[in-house]
Amino acid sequence: MLPPTYSKLGKDNLIVFLRFLIAMFFSCIINGNNLCSNQPFVSSTDSNIPLSLRALRLDGYLSSGNTEAAAKDFGNMHHHLPSAVLHPKSVSDISSTIKHIFEMGTESELTVAAKGHGHSLQGQAQACRGIVINMESLQGAEMHFYNGEQPYVDVSAGELWINILHESLKHGLAPKSWTDYLHLTVGGTLSNAGISGQTFRHGPQINNVYQLEVVTGKGEVVSCSDTQNADLFYAVLGGLGQFGIITRARISLEPAPRMVKWIRMLYSDFSIFTKDQEYLISSEDAFDYVEGFVIINRTGILNNWRSSFNPNSPLQASKFKSDGKTLFCLEIAKYFNLDDTDTVKQKVDVLLSKLSYIRSTLFLSDVSYIDFLDRVHISELKLREKGLWEVPHPWLNLLVPKSRIQDFAEVVFGNVLTDSINGPILIYPVNKTKWNDRTSMVTPEEDVFYLVAFLSSAMPSSTGTDSLAHMLTQNQRILEFCRTAALGVKQYLPYYSSQEAWQTHFGPQWSAFIQRKSTYDPLAILAPGQQIFQKGIAFS
Ligand code: FAD
């Protein structure tokens, strides 16, 4: 439809013309466009945006408002204000912004950080005076499912895992490898590893991706996989955001189970506890999920479990006294469908009979698959209600080689930590055979290593054992012990503030890491919050 020309407009035609304009306006809205998307948004109206970026033409928008939100993360300890936040509506918004900054060269100090759900701990998704890209703006892009022999889903990297779970279940499918908490983005966990109780079987999330779309530090949009641009593919997986911004990912799926038999039991002897954990991760057909946690100086543990689990022997369980002893809880799960209820129960009974836990402490619960996977969100809601979610989180995550886990436990659980850390301490083994060693992620050298996660919450006004200062000191003591005892520990979600420390962390992989950096982000524009490289300073 062409508009009538103005010169021919009489009164009637003027009405027709006005109707035409109104129709065009609504048609643009209905089609999901706005009039601006035909004439791309020019950000020059925002006078706080760095001058050099004001001419960028984008489908989304750059904003200097609400930069405070981009200077916050789950750790709640580091706050660096960016100059502006990009809310991209397309991959080309990301690539043209980075390309523009790349072309300005080292004269510009601008850096760029992708922000997923901002659940980093020490400012890793922040960019001091730079640009933060809010990856969640890309959320809502359609997920494409392929339901063949090796099913997968194509998703935006700004998508939350919980949304992927909900959509996949509609197709009777689900991703294989998870994190304990699902309100994290695909790009955020793939930049680290994505470890949970399924890792021993499927490897971490970075080993369950077939293909990625990445915007490099030069602004190029590159598709990559194990067979196409493989070096970039493996660089980006576990690459701490250093080599490119992941914009899309193809995630491997499996048929989703309906139900989960979720089981907990206690041990008082650490070596028996780890022997059972190691046995479980070595058997292919035992449980689908294996984790564990440490309980220090707590009473009434089993009473707390009763709200969501049933004791196997209620009378005996009621007689059990923890009395502040250090205990170790094995947490395991078996997936099943309702048709298999009886056979699964028999199978689980046989498997449990091979373990050496304290018999009176066996607790079980049958829950839906979704409730099991989204379990931490329930705790989040409770903590939010009490105002205890948005507090500082001085978390420390370590990967400890199997051969040194006893030494580690003896000193750390027996000596350094004498009291609860005001949060869980997770501990469970994974096996390296399930990890692809071509990714950027570094692990200890042994075939089996333990994830030990100290997930503490600090009380803002406290000066006691639950204060931030106390918890940070405790973390330092643990790290210092690992270093002096030469345990061969690696940090997970690593945090270092000097390049020497990063070099030590990467060890023999450091030269490959530098090589990849100079290939894909030679000006060190990306992910400055990791504090590995600095723009304008040569790599070494
Ligand atoms: P952000 O914090 O926003 O970003 C993390 C890093 O990745 C930053 O450097 C950022 O620049 C970069 N980044 C973000 N998106 C992209 C992208 N699209 N492309 C390139 N780089 C990008 N981890 C586990 O492995 N297992 C767990 O069980 C687990 N449980 C957790 C529970 C809670 C409550 C929390 C808060 C965290 C947990 N984590 C766990 C850690 C979590 O995986 C990481 O903190 C992860 O980075 C958070 O994802 P995010 O979307 O918030 O990323």
Structural topology:
Elements: H1 11-30, H2 35-38, E1 41-42, E2 57-58, E3 61-63, H3 67-70, E4 84-87, H4 91-103, E5 112-115, E6 131-134, E7 144-146, E8 152-156, H5 161-170, E9 173-175, H6 186-190, H7 199-202, E10 209-216, E11 221-225, H8 230-236, E12 244-255, E13 259-267, H9 270-282, E14 289-295, H10 301-305, E15 310-311, H11 314-319, E16 327-336, H12 341-353, E17 363-368, H13 369-373, H14 375-385, E18 396-401, H15 405-416, E19 425-431, E20 448-454, H16 468-484, E21 490-492, H17 499-506, H18 510-520
Parallel strand pairs: 4-6, 5-6
Antiparallel strand pairs: 1-2, 3-4, 7-8, 8-12, 9-12, 10-11, 10-12, 13-16, 13-17, 14-16, 14-19, 15-17, 18-20, 18-21, 19-20
Bound molecules: flavin-adenine dinucleotide (FAD).
Low-confidence stretches: 1-10, 20-44
Tell me the radius of gyration.
26 Å
The average pLDDT value, as a whole number, equals 91
Major sheet: arrangement of strands:
15-17-13-16-14-19-20-18-21
Q: Which molecules other than protein and nucleic acid are bound?
A: flavin-adenine dinucleotide
The assigned structural class equals alpha+beta
Tally of strands? 21
Broad shape: globular
- The helix fraction, in percent, is 25-40%
Strand content: 15-25%
Major sheet description = 9 strands, antiparallel
Q: What's the number of helices?
A: 18
State the end-to-end CA separation. 61 Å
